[in-house]
Amino acid sequence: MFAPAGDRRPLFVYGTLMFPAVLTVLLARVPRMEPVAVSAWRAACLLQRPYPGLVPDPGARTCGQLLLGLDDAEVAILDAFEGPAYEVGPLVLTDGRAAFAYLWRDLTQVSTQLWDPQVFAERHLVDYARRCAHWRARFAAGRS
């Protein structure tokens, strides 16, 4: 799903992957991160889900983090974690740099509300990180 090995652009993250607790569970480390933003994309609440989806919105600006230095194994983990509900697509950051992001596919599941990382951190992060740990254990078991 992600960029071919020879085309390793940074990954723009705008939701749960901005949280070091989630990255640590999934990747066993926190990659180098830089605060960045994109225009014309919105981190939208999704129906019945604690995580967001990035969807086109001409008037929006979304802040997030740029993950740098991901290796092929980490990309494979993130691709599997995000799954088929997302597609990887290129975008241009507000500073002009190119990046990839996981873009939400099913617009029928998108709310008009903006996803709030602070609300997620307060209400869902601990349980979400625990669920990520269970997913990661199953993923590792399936690869051995």
**What is the H-and-E element order?**
EHEEHEEEHH
Strand content: 35-45%
Radius of gyration: 14 Å
How many DSSP-defined strands? 6
Textual characterization of the structure:
This protein has a single domain (11-143), classed as Hypothetical upf0131 protein ytfp, CATH 3.10.490.10. The protein is α+β, with helices and mostly antiparallel strands and 144 residues long. The protein has four helices and six strands, in the order E-H-E-E-H-E-E-E-H-H. It starts with 10 loop residues before the first strand and ends with a helix. Helices cover 31% and strands 38% of the residues. The model is unreliable at 2-6 (pLDDT under 50). It is globular and about 45 Å long. Strands 4-5-1-3-2-6 form a six-stranded mixed beta sheet, with no helix packed on it. A hairpin with a 5-residue loop joins strand 2 and strand 3 (52-68).
Can you give keywords for this protein?
4 helices; Hypothetical upf0131 protein ytfp; alpha+beta
Topology of helices and strands:
Layout: E1 11-13, H1 20-27, E2 32-46, E3 52-68, H2 72-82, E4 86-92, E5 98-104, E6 110-114, H3 117-123, H4 125-143
Parallel strand pairs: 1-5
Antiparallel strand pairs: 1-3, 2-3, 2-6, 4-5
Please summarize what this structure is.
By secondary structure, the protein is α+β, with helices and mostly antiparallel strands. The protein has helices spanning 20-27, 72-82, 117-123, 125-143, and strands at 11-13, 32-46, 52-68, 86-92, 98-104, 110-114. The longest helix is centred in the last third of the chain and has 19 residues, at 125-143.
